[in-house]
Amino acid sequence: MATFSAAAAAATSSVTFASSLKPSLRNTVTSGITTSNLKMVTAGWTKKNFPSLKTNRFHVSCAAKPETVQKVCDIVRKQLALAADIELTPESKFSALGADSLDTVEIVMGLEEEFDISVEEESSQNITTVQEAADLIEKLVEKKTAA
Amino acid sequence: MGASSGPRLSGIQKQVLSLYREFLRVARSKSGEDHRQIESIVSAEFHRNSNEIDRKNFIYIEYLLRRGKKQLEQLKSPDIVGLSSLNVGSSQPKKT
């Protein structure tokens, strides 16, 4: 539901922008200003449209609850023995934090223990970021409670 | 998820990771102190081998996989609960 309204908002914003784009376009044509002006207008349009798209996607991928993400972050920190001053965001790649595939296995095992779930071999090898781990956990927890 | 994410792993890497998972799983079935000891020994062994052994040395890696599987079978037995020191011996063959 939230996604839909966000999409609608994006649509309306692009519509209003399109209408504001039109006069400026006509303006350039009639006044005969160089094409560089036109380029600037187009750039402004994509710029305007992009953030709304991005936030929309962010909404979808951020389905995992903040608590889950936080828990995952804590476990990753513990497993990799990261110093407190190392920044850990949901987008951080495990490999960028110095984890090899063995460490990833350890992280996944730690997560299994914490959330009382069992992650399949295949999907566990595909986890590369905190966000991916959190999303997968949410999915599995949901499946478990439903079953 | 899927194709875009995750490193491409070779078959033998997958086997090693799967064995590692199995070991950690078995370690979990043991109690308190033993659990942690087994985990640290197994972890140290895998990490040491992953650093020391050339990734192209398939024959040796396959040998270690077979050996690991046998050790895993032994460890799986409930009788082994208190014998985690057995693993210490096998992970440091030079000392014996």
Short description:
Chain A is mainly alpha-helical. Chain A is built from six helices and no strands. Chain A has two domains: 60 residues; 81 residues, Non-ribosomal Peptide Synthetase Peptidyl Carrier Protein, Chain A, CATH 1.10.1200.
Structure in words:
The complex is a heterodimer of chains A (147) and B (96). By secondary structure, chain A is mainly α. Chain A has two domains: 2-61; 66-146, Non-ribosomal Peptide Synthetase Peptidyl Carrier Protein, Chain A. Chain A has six helices and no strands. In chain A, α1 runs antiparallel to α2 (35-61). With 96 residues, chain B is mainly α. Chain B has one domain (11-79). Helices cover 69% and strands 0% of the residues of chain B. Chain B is built from four helices and no strands. In chain B, α2 packs parallel to α4. Chain B is elongated. Residues 1-5 and 85-89 of chain B have low confidence and may be disordered. The chains are: A mainly alpha (147), B mainly alpha (96).
